[in-house]
């Protein structure tokens, strides 16, 4: 006769004699078979509290024994020089996977860029468009009025999967803008800079010289428009603006007879 050996689970629970019967292993956990509580253990909430205490003690041991070893990797802070004017910004969610972690942003004061003259600075502002602002962006890490003579330039990229590729793309675009602004033979000094994005931002924040109408219409200026607001090329020549011409306008030339 072959004797069936009890399983390891039954031996571990001390139920090798009951294995194979209708009662089974789970019968030891029935309410009728439970032993009387002898007040020698805590509740489930107590075990959770003890686990939290063990975790806290583990971190305290790390602070006490492992943190002093980080002194070997300490480096002295050196402020950025004129050779490294770029400020690269990234976002990190403590290891959590998020699409914004691939994004890289570059902010740089225009006065620190290798632009050869004032015409090149004006060309760069025209090429930058809405990416140029007269004040540093709030999330750039730059202080107010820090190299603010020519404003600030900001560009970002999040199209590629790797952060280094996004940073490389933004850096390459900045280099191309500098080369195009410094190109000889091109001057756009007659073209004014478009500040509509700055006015729209000020109007949206209800700051600056632009405010909203009471009826909720478009923005209006605090002061009424005057002749100073018109382009000079639209105005007549100053030599023609005399009291005599204002009282007696110059008559129109006679039309030729058909």
TrEMBL record:
<dbReference type="Pfam" id="PF10213">
    <property type="entry name" value="MRP-S28"/>
</dbReference>
<feature type="domain" description="Small ribosomal subunit protein mS35 mitochondrial conserved">
    <location>
        <begin position="76"/>
        <end position="234"/>
    </location>
</feature>
<dbReference type="GO" id="GO:0032543">
    <property type="term" value="P:mitochondrial translation"/>
</dbReference>
<protein>
    <recommendedName>
        <fullName>Small ribosomal subunit protein mS35 mitochondrial conserved domain-containing protein</fullName>
    </recommendedName>
</protein>
<dbReference type="InterPro" id="IPR019349">
    <property type="entry name" value="Ribosomal_mS35_mit"/>
</dbReference>
<dbReference type="GO" id="GO:0003735">
    <property type="term" value="F:structural constituent of ribosome"/>
</dbReference>
<dbReference type="GO" id="GO:0005763">
    <property type="term" value="C:mitochondrial small ribosomal subunit"/>
</dbReference>
<dbReference type="InterPro" id="IPR039848">
    <property type="entry name" value="Ribosomal_mS35_mt"/>
</dbReference>
<feature type="region of interest" description="Disordered">
    <location>
        <begin position="215"/>
        <end position="258"/>
    </location>
</feature>
């Amino acid at each position: 006769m072959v004797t069936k050996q009890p399983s390891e689970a039954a031996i571990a629970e001390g139920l090798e004699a009951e294995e194979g019967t209708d009662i089974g292993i789970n019968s030891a956990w029935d309410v009728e078979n439970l032993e009387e509580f002898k007040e020698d253990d805590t509740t489930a909430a107590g075990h959770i509290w003890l686990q939290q205490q063990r975790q806290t003690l583990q971190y305290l041991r790390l602070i006490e024994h492992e943190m002093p070893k980080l002194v070997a990797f300490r480096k002295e802070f050196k402020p950025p020089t004129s050779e490294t004017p770029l400020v690269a910004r990234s976002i990190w969610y403590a290891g959590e996977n998020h699409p914004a972690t691939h994004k890289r942003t570059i902010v740089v004061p225009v006065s620190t860029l290798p632009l050869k003259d004032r015409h090149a600075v004006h060309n760069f502002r025209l090429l930058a468009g809405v990416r140029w602002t007269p004040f540093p962006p709030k999330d750039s890490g730059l202080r107010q009025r820090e190299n603010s003579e020519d404003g600030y330039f900001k560009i970002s990229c999040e199209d590629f999967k790797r952060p280094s590729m996004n940073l490389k793309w933004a850096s390459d675009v900045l280099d191309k803008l500098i080369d195009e602004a410094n190109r000889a033979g091109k001057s756009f000094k007659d073209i004014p800079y478009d500040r509509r994005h700055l006015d729209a931002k000020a109007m949206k924040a209800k700051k600056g010289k632009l405010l909203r109408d009471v009826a909720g219409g478009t923005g209006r200026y605090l002061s009424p428009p005057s002749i100073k607001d018109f382009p000079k090329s639209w105005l007549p020549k100053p030599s023609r603006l005399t009291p005599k011409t204002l009282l007696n306008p110059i008559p129109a030339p006679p039309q030729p007879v058909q």
